[in-house]
Amino acid sequence: MKKALLILSLLFVATILKAQDFQGVAIYKTHTKLDIKLDSTQMGGDMQEKMLAMLKKQFEKTYKLNFNKEESIYKEEEKLEAPQPQGMVMVMVNTGGSDVLYKNTKENRYTSQNESFSKIFLIQDELKKVDWILGSETKNIGDYTCYKATFKREVEVIESGISVNNDKEFDDEVTTEEREIIAWYTPQIPVSNGPENYHGLPGLILEVNDGNQSIMCSKIIINPESKIKISEPTKGKKVSQEKYDAIMDKKMKEMQEQYDSEHRGREGETIEIRIGG
Questions:
Q1: Considering the entire predicted model, what is its pTM?
Q2: Secondary structure of 2-56 in the HEC alphabet?
Q3: Is residue 45 within 8 Å of 90, Cβ to Cβ?
Q4: pLDDT tens-place string over residues 218-231
Q5: 257: helix, coil or strand?
Q6: How do the domains of the chain map onto residue ranges?
Q7: Which residues have a Cβ under 8 Å from the Cβ of 123 and sit 6 or more positions away?
Q8: Residue-level pLDDT at 4
Q9: Which class for 263: exposed (0-12), middle (13-18), buried (19 or more C-beta within 10 A)?
Q10: What's the Cα-to-Cα distance from 86 to each of 19, 47, 189, 237, rounded to whole Å?
Q11: What is the CA radius of gyration of the chain?
C-alpha cells in the first residue's frame, strides 16, 4: 500500500513539474479590411492601385506569442519595409498596439512597452475582465479543435479617409459603436491567453475577428527544444493606460497642426491616410 502511495505521489509531482515547465510559441498574422473610396479626379488609376497595395502590406503583420501557463510576451516579427512608390509620400495617421506586450494572467496585469514620438513608454495596468459568452460551435484550426466565444464592447470609430495635397476628404469627428468580437480558442492548449490583449478563455485563443481586423494563428510549437525566456519589459516612462492615451491624443493633435502648417500651400503630391477603429 505504501509503495502504491509512493508511486502515485511521484506521478503527481512529475505532473506538476511538467505543468510548470509547459511553454509554447504561437505565430499570428493580422489582416485589416480597407474600405476606402478614392476620387479619380485627384488620383489616377495606377496611383490608386499602388497606394492600396502599399496600404494592404502596412496592415499585414506577423506576431510571435511566447507563453507559459501564467505569462506571455507578444511582439511583432521584424521585416524590411517596402519602398514607397516614386512621387508619393504617405503619412500614416494610426495609433494603437504595442511594441512589446507582457501579460501575467495569474496576477491579472500587463506591461506594454511602446516607442512613440521618439520616447519609450512603459504602460502598466490591470488586465480588463472580459465577459465572454462561451458557445458550443466548433471548428478545426490546424490540428486543434477550437470553440467559439464572443463578447460585445463599445469602440471609437474614425471614418477612413484620404487627404490629397492636404485637401481633407474626411471628418475628424469620432463616433462610437457596439461591436461583437468573435474568438476561437482551444482547450487542448490550457492557457488563458491569446494575441494582443485578448485573454480569459479556458484555452489558447487561435483566432480573433474584431470588426475589420482579423488575427489568425498560423503555427504553434509546444515545449520547443530551446527553452523560452519571458522577461517583463522594464525600460521606459511608467504610465497608466489612461495617462498614455491622453498623451497620445495630445501629441496627435500637435502633429496634425504642425503638419497642416508646414504643408499649407506646398506643391507636390502628399497623401495622408487616416484609418479608423
A1: 0.76
A2: HHHHHHHHHHHHHHHHHHHHCEEEEEEEEEECCCCCCCCCCCCHHHHHHHHHHHH
A3: no
A4: 999 999 999 999 99
A5: helix
A6: 25-274
A7: 98, 110, 111, 112, 113, 114, 239, 240, 241, 244
A8: 44
A9: middle
A10: 54, 10, 47, 38
A11: 23
